[in-house]
Each structure stands twice: as structure tokens, then as C-alpha cells.
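re: ur question from the group chat, yeah i did fold both. here u go
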Amino acid sequence: MSEKVPFEQFLFRTAFCVIACDGHIDNREIDEIKKLAATTSFFRKINVEEELHRLLQSVRLEGRNIFTKFLDELGERDCDVVQELMVLEIVLRMIYVDTKLEINELKLTHLIRSKLKVADEVIFQRFGAVDVLLGDRKLFDTLEASQTRVPEFTGIGGSDEEFRSLDVDWDHLDRSESDL
């Protein structure tokens, strides 16, 4: 593997992968990323618009391979408990900001969780009984049954063509935080 990126950039990539895994980037997801960049230290030193465009270009070139690379890097990173909890917080913020949980978001969340060493008890203390993080199979079954269009995939993602043509509102993406 190549040299590891700084944690803030990796955290940003985490947010991007979560919002992109369902094949559509909702404007509320973009707004949440911009809000986090403006009001927290999660994405300090990150040029949000530039990084979003770079990652969208990666999707066009690599398709769902970006998820595999992301998960591989997550597994190789030597994160402490605080960093792992930050990853989970970003995941939760991104999956719930558009008020709907998609099956691919749930599957990616489970894959992310499987790469982390933080104990369920610590997750419970930090976030409460969040079914998405603590592996409630009923939630998964309910989502799977309720989805009318679930892309075929093994692991995460749809076909490469689906992800190469990621649905995103480009005009909204380029708005600054003050325009929102």
C-alpha cells in the first residue's frame, strides 16, 4: 500500500464513501460535509470542494474499486479508539442526514465496523443502542425487503457503470457554506 494519508483526509474519504455508496449524493449530504468542515475540526485543512471533485473523479475512473481501497486502508490504519469513534460518528452523520437509510449504506457500515477494533460496549456508551452499528439483523432484513431497487453487488456497491455515473447536483456541490 502507498503512504497513508493524514487522518483528516481519510475521515473525509470515509464521509465521501458513505454518501456515494448508494449511487446518489443527496444535497443534504454535501451540506452536512460543508457544515462539518466549517464548524468542527473533522476536516481541518481540507478544501471541501476540491476534495469532493477529486473523489468524484476517482469514482468515474475506478468505479466501486474506491470502496475496496477505502476498506483496505481502514483495515491497515493503526487508529486509536478516539479515531475509530470519529470514523463511526462520520458514518452515522452521513447515513442519517438524508433521513433515509439505504441498503448499501448499511452494508458499508457493517464492513467499516468489521475493520475497527473498538468494543461494542464503547460504541454503546458513545452512541447508545444504534442498530446500524451494533448489527441488528432485523434492520437489515427490513431494509432489504423495503428497497425497490437494490443494485446487484458482492460486498459494496453496484455495477461499476452505476458508480461511474454517480448522481450528484454539480451546481449545489460548488456552492459555498455561506450560500446554503
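okk and heres the other one u asked abt
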Amino acid sequence: MAPATSTIKLTIEQRELSGLFYDEAYDHPGESLKKICKRVLRQTSFPKTPNGHRFEQEVRRAYDLARPSAPRKSVTIGAANRKGRQEREVSPSGKIMRPQSFIILGVSHRVQGDEDFRDAFDDPTYRDIVKEIISGERIDFVGEEAAIKTTHAERIAQNLLGTGHYLNVDPVLEEDKEKYGIGETCLPCPLTGAPVYGWVVAENEKRERIWVDLLIKRTVARGLLICGFYHTFSVAAKLLGMGFEVEARTYLPLEK
């Protein structure tokens, strides 16, 4: 689950754990936060890390939102739906397909809602596309390659699906990059000559595998991943190679 505001900086593991707390509280409404904490964290107290207090605030917010008295959205991610993942479908060719399916939407980072990104601009068309995909494709989880700040997709997912259905899947914090062993992913453009950038394939491969793993883990039936358009086909190919049904789409407002 994504942070409530852009000021709460959580690691990718903490963001995922916040979502798990929501799931557990929703599936077990009679359990205390302490009991859920013991099951999820294997301890009854929150770890004392530099941002431990922020993490605890976010978890408590997720726990409160999952209480029976909290407003409900139309899509839930409870235990019954998870059991449905065991079903298998067979393609016309006879190949066994995994039950989940995915849409990869490759976009320009300029439209995602981070005003600090170079040449970023407000694009209502992009927001409409995200809303249409989530609503029309029965999406139950949205993953995104994003920076720290809250994005348009996060707000839309929160509004349409409720808490626990969105996650920034990219390891953006330095401690995340160190944990996963991710180095520089893009080489700077030469000072002279054509604007040709170099992309470090091995490091971007590490990032994409993290995205795919989290997308599969958090999706019940149909998931959406929003990422930079350069990653569209390589991410889709990873999912296809694992036996999932996947669609690749791009939105590049070049005229804007």
C-alpha cells in the first residue's frame, strides 16, 4: 500500500507490509493489531528504524481503514478471492495459463503526476486512461514505477478500489537500492554530440524483476502495472514467459 502523503517515505518492504496489515485486518476483523503484528512481523512491536514511527503510523492507518465500520469499496482482496487463484485456465493451444492476467501500461514519466520530473505537465487524458482501465478491465491491483510523491494513479486507485490496492513497486530509496544491489541504471548523455543515453541492462533487469514479483504477489485476478514506456515490452515478456496472460499498451503524448 502506498504512503498516505508524499512526506511519509517508506521502503518498498514497508510499503508492502502496510498492505499486508490491511489484508489481515480485513480478513480477520476480530483480531487486535498486536496479534496481526505478531503474525506479519513475527514480533509484537514495530522495528526501531529511522522511519519506524512513520511505518507504525501507516500500519495503524491501514488497520483502522480495514475495520468493519470503515467504508467499503466494491473490490476487496480477502481470503476467498485468494483461494480463487488456484483455478487454472487452458489456452486454445492447450497450454495451461495461470489464473491472473495483467496489463502493462508504458507511459512518459512526465504525465504521472510528479511535478518535480523534468518537463512534467498536467494531462487529463492520461488520468482518464487510467480510470478507464481500472474500471473497464476490472483491475484489482495497481503497481507503478514512481518516485516518492503521490501520483495520479495512486489517487485514482485509492478512489476506485480503496486502500490496499496500490503499491509503488520501484525501489526508489537508497536503502532499497542497497538492499537489492541495484546500481546506476542510466548513463548520462555525453556533453557533446547527439542525445544518446546509455541504459544499464543488468541493473534495470533487477528493478523489473522486483516489479513483476510484487505485481504477481498483490494481484488477485487482474493487475495493472504503470511504468516508463522503455520497460513496457521487457516487463510484459517476463510475465508472458511465466505463463501469464498479458497485454502491453503505451501512452506517449508526443504532441503535448
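fwiw on the second one: Residues 1-7, 70-93 have pLDDT under 50 and may be disordered. The two ends are 32 Å apart (CA to CA). idk if thats what u expected
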